[in-house]
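Notebook, student rotation project (T.W.).
Task set for the rotation: take a protein with a known small-molecule partner, predict the structure of the complex, and write up what can be learned from the model alone. Partner molecule chosen: 8-OXO-2'-deoxyguanosine-5'-triphosphate. Sequence and SMILES entered below by T.W., checked by me.
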Amino acid sequence: MNKKNIHVVGAVIIKDDKILCAQRGESKNLSYKWEFPGGKIESGETPQQALKREIQEEMECDIAVGEKIDHTVYEYDFGVVHLTTFYCTLQKGKPILTEHHSIKWLFKHELSSLDWAPADIPTIEKLENM
Ligand SMILES: Nc1nc2c([nH]c(=O)n2[C@H]2C[C@H](O)[C@@H](COP(=O)(O)OP(=O)(O)OP(=O)(O)O)O2)c(=O)[nH]1
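Predicted structure of the complex:
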């Protein structure tokens, strides 16, 4: 059986040289793994629109979406995630924890101390070598 394709966008939000990292909740797949806030692209949306919407919903703040960082395809047991990550900045408000277990602001050289969702590793490597 073919696995379902899941198209996901992730926001690498940078503020004062630190990057916002978010930990998934207990009841989710990839529970307690770290990720970039974001989510699935809905039909009719551009990746950038999806990212702005997801961050508003999840963290109650507005972002500006900048350049693409990376695009990876990773096969999990529950499906194939196509993850695109973008540089973002905060425009209005401050990220609020709603559905994540926790959030952290880390310098890029600290990112690899967290247990990331596997699809995120190429983005982490790019950020570390930036
Ligand atoms: N938001 C986000 N999701 C990621 C990243 N890396 C990664 O493998 N994923 C996976 C986890 C999920 O299976 C999927 C994103 O879906 P989602 O955030 O909309 O959905 P979810 O599983 O948290 O919850 P649900 O809405 O399906 O209940 O992509 C990442 O950096 N950010």
